[in-house]
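Quick one, probably user error.
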């Protein structure tokens, strides 16, 4: 799994927006949506509510419009009869294939990144550029952009999302050590103000893949004893713990 001016105080504040983010995270997790969808929601909240669009100058406004164009391309619909004009079918962009869709999105994001350096908007664009490149199979470039985004100390929310995507990519590609390092860092980080149950679940998977089943069980048990006792994410965590406890010890993997 993105931005743009969201301070640590704001992300940790107990306000309706923060509560909405928490609920959206649980909803998308349970329904299996991509991190990119969640990021789009957070982008909308942080830019629309905290960014103060009315104060953007004309150049920033153009970049903002281009950013939303790229995001709309990223989440565009696919239709076999789509024309070269993505808006030929209406206000919702439509493309002939996923490849064409992500190529169009990446073009918009790349333009922002090259034209706006390390501005807030460029940080968001770089995150989405990484997501688009992952979808296009350009993993080296994607990881490079996501790693740069993750290292940004000013835009913490997008940085956390970039780390989350990297951890997922490492876990899926067999880089269990890399996934573990990122996940453990996020879990320990007091500035990470969002639910950590899903982080612990993936951390347990990385540990199991490394042949460290007992450590994985401990991670889930400890996480189960923290935070809210009743939530959709907590229920999923406890299910993972129960499944792992019933699974026989497996051999170590490299």
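Nope, works fine. Designed sequence:
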């Amino acid at each position: 799994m993105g931005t743009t001016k969201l301070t640590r105080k704001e992300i940790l504040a107990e306000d309706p927006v923060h509560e909405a983010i928490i609920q959206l995270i649980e909803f998308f997790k349970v329904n299996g949506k991509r991190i990119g969808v969640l990021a789009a929601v957070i982008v909308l909240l942080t830019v629309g509510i905290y960014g103060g669009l009315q104060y953007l100058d004309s150049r920033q406004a153009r970049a903002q419009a281009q950013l939303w164009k790229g995001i709309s391309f990223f989440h565009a619909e696919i239709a076999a009869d789509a024309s070269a004009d993505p808006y030929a079918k209406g206000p919702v962009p439509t493309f002939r294939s996923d490849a064409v869709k992500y190529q169009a999105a990446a073009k918009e994001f790349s333009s922002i990144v090259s034209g706006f350096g390390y501005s807030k908007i460029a940080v968001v664009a770089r995150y989405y550029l990484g997501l688009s490149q992952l979808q296009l199979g350009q993993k080296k470039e994607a990881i490079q952009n996501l790693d740069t985004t993750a290292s940004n100390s000013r835009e913490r929310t997008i940085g956390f999302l970039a780390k989350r995507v990297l951890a997922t990519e490492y876990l899926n590609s067999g880089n269990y050590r890399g996934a573990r390092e990122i996940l453990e860092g996020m879990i320990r980080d007091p500035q990470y103000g969002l639910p950590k149950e899903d982080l612990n679940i993936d951390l347990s998977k990385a540990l199991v893949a490394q042949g460290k089943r007992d450590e994985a069980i401990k991670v889930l048990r400890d996480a189960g004893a923290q935070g809210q006792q009743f939530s959709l994410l907590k229920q999923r965590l406890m299910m993972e713990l129960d499944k792992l406890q019933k699974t026989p010890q497996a051999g170590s993997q490299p």
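The chain has two domains: 8-175, 195-254.
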